[in-house]
């Protein structure tokens, strides 16, 4: 089978990346340079670059052109209940937390529905940023019934929200329902995460349930998309 010029260009770029000649974040040589080096048409180079952008080997900045896609230092497994701290520490970074707000407020009708509590029942609200070596990685907004955990109780805990719930409420998380949503830009959260207006965020909305299928924790986790990649295992039915 005859290999096309587009295949030839793609394979050359992949080998340059694998050998380290082109490193994550490096800009590609000009299309004309590549075309002359490989003795192909510039249109073939354009097509090869477009295909590798679609396959996420390369990324494209409209102002700066194509470059080798930077590596994601963190992987978050969607099919496991893994703490963000563990995700960070598994990659050799030191996990820490910066608290933005810790309060107890009456539940809105939406909070009440999500947590299965009466309207206006007190809800503990924890707003924080999870850090890796002082680098912001995830913005977290957590809500749970104050009857399960108060602000004072949480402040006396080891910072693990799930451990604190288990200790003070004698409730253990059995599973979590997760929704994933791509967020292009959110001024407050993007600023907190030190993300530019061009950098997307991935939002995980989780409702954690106990052994009796009762919701005990509702969380918004905004992941900085340049730092975290998600993975899961899908089995055939």
CATH class of the largest domain: Alpha Beta
Largest sheet features? 6 strands, antiparallel
In the residues, how many domains can be counted? Answer: 2
CATH architecture term of the largest domain: 3-Layer(aba) Sandwich
Instruction: Count helical runs.
Output: 8
* Spatial strand order of the main sheet: 4-5-6-9-8-7
Shape: elongated
Q: Radius of gyration, Cα only, in angstroms? A: 23 Å
Unreliable spans = none
Give helix and strand order, one letter per element, not per position: HHHEEEHEHEEHHEHEEE
What's the mean pLDDT score? Answer: 90
CATH fourth-tier homologous superfamily of the largest domain: Chorismate lyase-like
Helix share, percent? 25-40%
List the helices and strands and how they pair.
Layout: H1 5-19, H2 31-38, H3 42-54, E1 58-61, E2 65-68, E3 74-77, H4 84-89, E4 95-106, H5 109-115, E5 122-132, E6 135-145, H6 151-155, H7 161-169, E7 173-183, H8 187-192, E8 201-210, E9 215-224, E10 228-231
Parallel strand pairs: 3-10
Antiparallel strand pairs: 1-2, 4-5, 5-6, 6-9, 7-8, 8-9
Helix pairs in contact: 1-3, 2-3
Structural notes for this entry:
- This protein is of the alpha+beta class.
- The chain folds into 2 domains: 5-68, Arc Repressor Mutant, subunit A, CATH 1.10.10; 74-231, Chorismate lyase (3-Layer(aba) Sandwich), CATH 3.40.1410.10.
- It has helices at residues 5-19, 31-38, 42-54, 84-89, 109-115, 151-155, 161-169, 187-192; strands spanning 58-61, 65-68, 74-77, 95-106, 122-132, 135-145, 173-183, 201-210, 215-224, 228-231.
- The strands form 3 sheets. Strands 4-5-6-9-8-7 form a 6-stranded antiparallel sheet. Strands 1-2 form a two-stranded antiparallel ribbon.
- Strand 5 and strand 6 (135-145) form a beta hairpin.
- Helix 1 crosses helix 3 (42-54).
- The longest helix is centred in the N-terminal third of the chain and has 15 residues, at 5-19.
- It is elongated.
């Amino acid at each position: 089978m005859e290999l096309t010029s587009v295949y030839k260009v793609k394979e050359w770029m992949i080998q340059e990346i694998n050998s380290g000649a082109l490193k994550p974040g490096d800009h590609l040589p000009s299309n004309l340079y590549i075309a002359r080096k490989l003795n192909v048409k510039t249109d073939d180079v354009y097509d090869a670059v477009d295909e590798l952008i679609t396959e996420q080997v390369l990324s494209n900045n409209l102002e700066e052109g194509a470059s080798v896609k930077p590596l994601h230092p963190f992987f978050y497994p969607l099919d496991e209940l893994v703490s963000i701290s563990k995700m960070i520490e598994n990659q050799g970074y030191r996990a820490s937390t910066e608290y933005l707000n810790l309060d107890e407020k009456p539940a809105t009708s939406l909070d009440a529905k999500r947590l299965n509590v009466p309207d206006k029942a007190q809800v503990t609200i924890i707003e924080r940023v999870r850090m890796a070596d002082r680098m912001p990685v995830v913005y977290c907004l957590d809500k749970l019934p104050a009857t399960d955990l108060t602000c004072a109780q949480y402040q006396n805990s080891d910072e693990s929200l799930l451990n604190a719930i288990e200790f003070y409420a004698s409730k253990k998380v059995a599973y979590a329902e997760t929704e994933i949503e791509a967020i292009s830009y959110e001024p407050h959260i993007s600023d907190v995460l030190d993300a530019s207006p061009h950098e997307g965020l991935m939002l995980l909305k989780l409702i954690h349930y106990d052994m009796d299928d009762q919701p005990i924790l509702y969380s918004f986790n905004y992941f900085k998309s340049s730092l975290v990649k998600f993975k899961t295992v899908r089995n055939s039915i």
